[in-house]
Amino acid sequence: MTAATIAPTRLRLGLAALAVSAFSAFGTPALARGPDGIADVAEKVIDAVVNISTSQTVEAKGGGTNTMPQLPPGSPFEEFFDDFFKNRRGPGGGSKGGERGDNPPRKTNSLGSGFIIDTTGVVVTNNHVIADADEINVILNDGTKIRADLVGVDKKTDLAVLKFKPPRPLVAVKFGDSDKLRLGDWVIAIGNPFSLGGTVTAGIVSAKNRDISSGPYDSYIQTDASINRGNSGGPLFNLDGDVIGVNTLIISPSGGSIGIGFAVPSKTVVAVVDQLRQFGELRRGWLGVRIQGVTDEIAESLNIKPARGALVAGVDDKGPAKPAGIEPGDVVVKFDGKDVKDPKDLSRVVADTAVGKEVDVVIIRKGQEETKKVTLGRLQDPDKVQAAVKTDEPAPEKLVTQKALGLDLAALSKDLRTRYKIKDSVKGVVVTNVEANSDAAEKRLSAGDVIVEVAQEAVSSGADIQKRVDQLKKDGKKSVLLLVSNADGELRFVALSVQ
User: Fold this and answer.
1) In a shared domain, residues 425 and 464
2) Per-residue DSSP letters for 434-459?
């Protein structure tokens, strides 16, 4: 598994034993072995847990021990090395087309875990277990090996569904409700760590809804059950024998378990697996907004107490939010009846909502709650990112600027648009310089940013900005909320101190 350290773990086998007697003050053994039900659960579900074996053909890289060194034509050593490497490669030199120095492609193999959810031969595992594989095989608990086909994958949750033809009746497991887990509940992991198939480990739920910034929908179950390389894709069971998670990641500086493992919760897995089985792909809901967190400063500027929700920084002109009346500056605090505490909450609940469903979205606008009805669209997922090309900027011109908030500000002109490559659709006041050690520098404002609004009012000159700042100071405000655009028109909110 990429049972990552959040980096991939490496195979390091080492066995050590440490015997420690544990007695209470009265001389009786301490109860530290866990509940008696673990053995019953393992016996019940072990045949539904499988090993996943994959193979991939990769191009061999040059520079190895069998690679012909590069020699100048006519070198006295050319004939010697030619004969030497031909002999090492065997008759014919082992080269493609008789060309000297070519290395043939080679096969690599990897192992992971998975589990059967349907007796027709449907298996759930991690995407990274089978990614780029030329051949996928499922190995049952009794050692039977069967070729499997890929049904579909979801890279964002790192899940995959496989299908194989059963050679005999199978044992399948069902999903439990991960929302019902409590901190300290016992859980059981079964998988193929270090190619030791059918390994059972147990631990507790250490944390829920853990965000480790590995993807847009992070909400992991954290457990101290031993999870190692090869456990990826394997199930995490509760004591009823229901799958409440898919083991996916570990944090480890050495490659072995240190008691910090992460599993995708069954609530997420069920929704993804259902769509992969039905469509072969994910069809996620789409609101059509860009969002950011609500800091204490932003909350104070927007009269929101306490700080919460997801701040709308931009609205897609072709997205569902636009016709519903959602605007930049709105703060989403509830979506389809579910509270939104932060941007991650909104991203997850929107993605999990059916495409085409009409939902109520509760926003805060200018201190007042409003409800908007939105019919969700479908999120498109083009895995293409256009690289920005940096070109030399023209020589700076003499500008009429005004200082405010630690910024040098100027009205947008044709020359400034050219200098900073600002799109014609962007309106406002351009930042030409940021004072070092200022609040603006700390908030990562930079030359070329354009201030579109100050305290939710449009501005077109540095004088407009200074006027709004002076008024806010008189009103006793500690910070001012700026709507800032980059050169491409992407918006974000920034709160700066006015003191």
Assistant:
1) yes
2) E-TTSHHHHTT--TT-EEEEETTEE-
